[in-house]
Design brief:
- Helix 4 crosses helix 6.
- The strands form five sheets. The protein has a seven-stranded antiparallel β-sheet with strand order 19-20-21-22-25-23-24. The chain has a six-stranded antiparallel β-sheet with strand order 1-11-10-7-3-4.
- 27% of the residues lie in helices and 24% in strands.
- With 686 residues, the chain is an alpha+beta fold.
- A hairpin with a 4-residue loop joins strand 21 and strand 22.
- The termini are far apart.
Length: 686
Amino acid sequence: MTKGSNVALPTLSEDVGTVIVSLGWVSPTGEGDADVSVLLLDAGGKVRSDGDFYFYNNPVAPDGSVQLLGKTPTEDGNEDRICFDLTAVPPQVERIVVAASRYGGARFGELENVRVRLADAAGESLLRFAIADVDAVSAIIFGELYRRGEEWKFRAVGQGYDSGLAGLATDFGVDIEDDAAEVEAEAASAVEAVEAADPVSGGGQPEPVAPATTAATLEAVPAPRRPDVAEGEPAKRKAAARPRTAKKKVTLPKATRKSLAENESWREARLFPVSVLKSDRDREMRATSVLLSVMAQVPEFGRRLTAAFGAPSGRTETFTEVSLPHGDTPRRPDGVIRVERAGKLWTALVETKTNGNSLKADQVQAYMDIAARRGYEAVITLSNDVALEGSPLVDVKVDGRRKHKVALWHLSWAEVAHQAQMLIRHEGVGNAAHAWLLQELLHYLQHENSGCHGFQNMGAAWVPVRNGIDDETLCQGDPRALEVVESWERLIRQVCLRMGGELGQKVLPVQRAKRGTDPGTRRALLADQLCLDGRLQAELRIEGTPGVLAVSADLRTGKLRTSVEIPAPDQGYPLTWVKRLVRRLAEAPADLHVETLVESETGGPRGTLERLRPEPADLLPRNTATGITGFRLSLFKGMGSTRGNAESGFIRSVDDAVHRFYTSVVVHLDRPAPRRAAAKESVGAG
C-alpha cells in the first residue's frame, strides 16, 4: 500500500472477523526497539476514556477486542503483533489507531525497514505498508482500522510525531501527567506489603500472589491525567482506573515458610501427578489434557496462546481424544480447542509430541485435510521442537481448490512454559486459583518425567560435524552443517524464552542480515562460515541491558564464550571510566576478561578482572591520544560434548553459560558504583 491509501478488509479475505496487525522494523545495531500502542476513538476522533489506550502496561481489552501479543523474530528483524477481534469492538468505536513510539531520546530514523503488515485469522498476509521519511520522529501512526457501514477498512497513515507518545496521545484527547516518581513510591510500598504478608500456603510452596509493579522511568512518556482533576488538586485514585506508562516490573516474595513434612521423603500432593507415566503415549495424553484443561480454566493463559493463532476472544472449551472420520479409519487428534464468539465457532485440532519424538507429516496432513473438510480454522502442532521461519517442521500439501483455508501453527513446550511464567511471576492473573493452576502446570512441565522440557537434542548431524571440524574434512555446502546451524538457532530461541520468563523482560535473538534476506539463504551462509572457522555465533538483546549479549561456541577448541560490549561514557576521564567499571564488577567472577575497545585498532589493553582490580589503569592505552570507544566483557567455559541435554551435553552447557554470564556480570552493569571509593577516585583522576 501507499501512504494515504485504504482498502476494505472483506475484499481481501472472507475471514476478517479477527485480524493480526504486525509492526516491524530492523535495527542495524541490534539494540533499537519501539513500543506499540493502540487507541480506540469515537465518532469525534477522541478516546472515550483512558481505558481506550492500550500499551505495554495495559495490553488486553476486557472484552477481548484488543490484545498486544508481543514481539516475534522474523527474517527481517522483529515484528510486534496486535490481535484485533473486530466483532467485539464496541459500536461507539469508529476508528482504531495503531502506533509505535521510541523512548529515551531515540528516533525512528535509527531503524530501517519500518513497516506494518495485516493478516487474517488464518495467518495469511493481506497487505503491507512500508513507511519512509521517519528520521526525526519518536512516534508514528502506522495505520488505522475504521468503520464504513457494516464493514471495516484499513488506511495506511504513516504520520510521525516529534513529541513522542505524549504528543500523539494529546492529539486524541488523552490528558497526561508525568507521575513516574509517584508510581515508583507506590511500587516500593506495594513490594514492602507483599514481603510483609504471609507469602506461603500449606506444604511449603509460595502462595500465588498478584504481582506488584515497580517503575522504570520513561522520560519522554508521561502518563495520562484524568480530565476531571483540576491542576494542583490531589487526585482520588482507583486501583486500575488509568493507564501508567512506567514499565511494569515485579519482585516476588523472598521468604518461604518451612514445610510441615517430617523429612525430605515426604512429597507434596500435586494436581497433575507425573511419576506414574511409563510410556511416551502416556506422556502425550497427559500433557495434552493438562495443558488444554488449564487453558480452558485460566482465560488469561488460554487467550494468550490462542490469540497468536488468530482465535477470537470468547468462551473456550477444550477436548481430548476426539474421534473424527477420515476415510476408512477414523482419526483421533490429541486435542481440540473451540472458541465461541457471538454464535460463531473457531476450532483447532491439536497434535502433541513429547520427549524427542518428531511430528509425523502423514498425521499432520490428515488433520489438515479433516479440518478443511469440516470447516475448522487451524491445526496446532505441539512438541519440544522450536519452529524456524522458512524451515517448517513438517511439509504438508494444501489443496488450492478448496475455498476454506486452514492455518498450520506450531507451539513449543518452551513457549508454553514461558507464557505461564510471564503471567504468574511477572504480570499477574485474575485470582489466586488461576495462579495456583499455572503454578501446577509449570511444575508438571518442569518435572523430569513429563517429557516437556523443550528443545533437547542437536540432531544426528552434531557429532559428524564436530568430527569434521576437528580433522578439517568438513566442506562448505555439506547439508549436515546446515542442520547444525538450524539446531543452534532453535537452541538460542529457547534460551531467549527461558531467560525472558525468568526475568519478565523481552529477550530476543538478534538477526544481523541484509534487509529482505531469505531465512534459508541466511542459514546457508552461516553454515558455510561454520565450515570455515568452526564457530557457532549468536546475539541476544535483553531489555534493560546496556549492550547485546553475544554467544560463541568454538567447536575446534571446545570453548564457549559469552560477552557484552558496553560503550564508553560521553563525558569524564578515561581513568574514571575504568575505575568505575571495575567497581561495578566487584561481585563478578575473577576470571572475567575485560578488554578496552579503541579507535582504529584491532584491540586495546586487556586482562582478567583478578589482575585489574588492584590496577584498573592497566586498561588504559599507553598512547593517551588513543580514543576509547568502549569495553568488552567476556567469560569462557568448557563446552559440553554430547548432542543432548544431559549434564555433559552441549545444550545444557550453553544454557548454563548464558545464565551465569547474565547473573554474574550483566546484572551488575546497571548498579551504581559503591560510594566509598569516590574520594580516592577524584584524587587519582586528577
